[in-house]
Amino acid sequence: MTDQKVSSKLRVAIAGLGSIGTKIATALDQGIEGLALSAVAVRDPAKHQPFLAGLRQQPQILPVDQLGEAADIVVECAPSSQLRVIVEPAVTRGRSAVVVSVGGLLDNFDLVDLARAKGGRILVPTGALIGLDAVNAAALGTIHQVKMVTRKPIDGLKGAPFIVENKIDIDNLREPLKLFEGSARDAARGFPANVNVAVALSLAGIGPDRTQIQVWADPTVTRNVHRIEVEADSARFSMGIENIPSENPKTGIITALSVIALLRKQRATLCVGT
Ligand SMILES: NC(=O)C1=CN([C@@H]2O[C@H](COP(=O)(O)OP(=O)(O)OC[C@H]3O[C@@H](n4cnc5c(N)ncnc54)[C@H](OP(=O)(O)O)[C@@H]3O)[C@@H](O)[C@H]2O)C=CC1
Ligand SMILES: O=C([O-])CC(=O)C(=O)O
Fold first, then answer.
1. N or C: which end of the chain has fewer CB within 10 A?
2. Is 273 left (phi over 0), alpha (psi -120 to 50) or beta?
3. Contacts of 53 (CB under 8 A, 6+ apart)
4. pLDDT tens track for 119-128
5. What's the CATH class of domain 3-127+254-265?
6. Predicted ipTM?
7. What superfamily would CATH give domain 132-243?
């Protein structure tokens, strides 16, 4: 490879090396056209040393607020509580931030204005969902209604603030239980690690207050199941996805793949889908 090609690569940094971050790091290390893994930020570098040692090229290990110095694209894949400390410094430097903890964006929406002012970008992948291309397109006309129903196995919901605060016992469920029905915004507060998908859907469509979601604890399913109904002046469509959980039961395997697909599009010669 020529020096010119190496130096023209987009540098990608990853904040958080959990179920999503490790897959993205591995994909970048194995090679994505025009991209290179430049840095990572982790809470405890020693814990992640065995994983990092297995990479062919060693990325820098930096504090989260310095990732934007070492990268053109910073990928946030940490808990949503960390979203601001990861994204703010990156977009302040005019970098792109890929946000997977998209639920956390609702309480930090000023970051979008900041990115606009500084020439940065915030990119939300489709993540564990489906069809945001169609929702984006329909939103150019009029969307009348977006409804979503999420069903998750018990392990995928344990510890959600809504369940803890309302003292709901889901451990001994034998039948599906509807835990929540309301807006995507309220769902994101009650289930910050469970309904990022609903927030991504809402931002693609009619916003977090008009997008309606039900959340079910369902001992009869083994996958994270999402069903979506959209009624628009251009089309009516229904979408469904049944995600196989990753090593983190709250997170579908497809989420990391969606981010990798988004990264590939940054420099791919052939891009398919919007
Ligand atoms: N948009 C979407 O469709 C989806 C979004 N998500 C969201 O993506 C995010 C990541 O999910 P997932 O990878 O499964 O989560 P994991 O819990 O597997 O990984 C999170 C990682 O973040 C690290 N971390 C925690 N605090 C910090 C910090 N202060 N600085 C740097 N790193 C930190 C953790 O470190 P350590 O290893 O030391 O604990 C861990 O490695 C979550 O917010 C999740 O809700 C998930 C699924 C779908
Ligand atoms: O949206 C989320 O946070 C996770 C999710 O539903 C999934 O992985 O299917």
1. N
2. left
3. none
4. 999 999 999 9
5. alpha beta
6. 0.96
7. Dihydrodipicolinate Reductase; domain 2 (3.30.360.10)
